[in-house]
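We now fix the convention by which a protein and its fold are recorded. The integers have meaning only within a learned vocabulary of local backbone shapes. The record below shows the convention in full.
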Amino acid sequence: MSVNSLRRGYQVLATSLRYGLDKLIPKQYIPWWLAMARACLFWLKDQHPDLGSGEKVKLTLQTLGAVHIKFGQMLSTRRDLLNDEWAMHLSQLQDQVPPFSSEIARQHIEQQLGCPIEHLFDEFDDTPLASASISQVHTARLKSNSEAVVLKILRPNVEQSVSADVELMQLLARWGERLLADAHRLQLTAVVEDYKQTIFKELDLRLEGENATRIRNSFADSKALYIPKVYSEFSRTRLLVMERIDGIPVTDIDALTAQGTNFKLLAERGVEVFFTQVFRDNFFHADMHPGNIFVSKVTPNDPQYIGIDCGIVGSLSEADKRYLAENFLAFFNHDYKKIAQLYIRSGWVSAQTDIDAFEAAITEVCRPLADKPLAEISFGLVLLDLFRTARQFDIVVQPQLVLLQKTLLYVEGLGRQLYPQLDLWATAKPFLENWMKSQIGVKATAEKLSERFPEILDKLPEMPELIYDNLVMGRNLLNQQQKLLDRYLSYKRKQHKSYFLLGLSGVLVICACVLSLRNDTLVPAIILATASGIFGLWGWLSKPAQDNI
């Protein structure tokens, strides 16, 4: 454990206690040893007894910094798990984080640009447009063409803060895997390592710019999603310059209503955007909390999302995409046995899992979701039930699916706020069915062959030689395997012979010792002892060397 981990661990504990989070836990759930430990920390008193519980949690996460604010941002969309007070306060973490001084912002921007701001931009506004967990945004205009832009600059020392938090999370994950009985199923260290890679990628604003450009190009002609243009010539590791957009925050329901927004279409397009990114592009925006999503003011009857902050993105392997799509379709068709089979075939659960019991558990959890609109489904409770039943099986949390799961939570949260009557499944099912048709069948096979036909044609003259080489390689491989098998069998025969001789030697020694206790059998005892030594030496010399296997 490093000094930084100890220091950060104490800071997290101290901040939580100073905001009185320990008082939010009912006393009947606090074990005696934890109550005693809390009493020993008598100098860490609740300094905000008059604040509500939601504000206490918000201020604690806000004080602890970027990693904890990200956690609060995700929680703010879970209205089925949080009461209105908590949801309101946590939602403020999305764009109401206290800004740092404009003098420091100017200094860091000019350091990244290598020149004064006035050389490249006009109308730079010292008052930040927004202040988020790891960055701050200022507005300006390009000097060259007067285009309105925003300049996103990382917070001072945010890298050090994130490193300390991630190091603490890694430590807690290692402890958890040692102390928790089913920690292997959760893959705590793997999940934290995956999160570490994700959060550090978000600290490279050049990478965010590349992600935004890639998604922008994928949706270039789309009515569903618009991504602002990135000015890569001005962007750096800690600075991102992009087009300034004019949109309404997706959480501002009153403003969206006032402009006559088609909420049903808007909600359906949110589902469409998500599944298109995951299955068509295999590159999805994985930080779709409401603070990063706006709605265009141009065509409210034909609403278009505007997405920003593409620092966190995700992708899946082709196999995971296929299994995921089949799982969704099996769920839509209420085929819970197939879901259980797919989990096993994909390797997400052990092959030794009792498929009938697993199917029964899935059926119990999923049946309440059948044929219900989104407004009547509590995914939070379903997830809790799944985690509870998962303890009966060797279910493994897949790190590559963590971002996708989080994004699904965001999509659900937005759907609840925009159009509670949205039938998420009816919207997604046709998309998935069409995608599956494009992946399997004669037509899909023909299209894949046509795509690779030039490559196949280019390799065709080499085919006879490649076939011959592979046949020779296969024959040589079989010969090598036979030789290895022969060496292994020879090794085991010598090993068995050595064990037999050594065992016989041991038996003869015991017999010689027993006979030596009687005067009339001394000579036989000597003979047996001599024989024991001969067989023991023979067995030792017969022992095969390890490098002979």
Summary: The mean pLDDT is 80. Residues 102-259+290-308 form one domain.
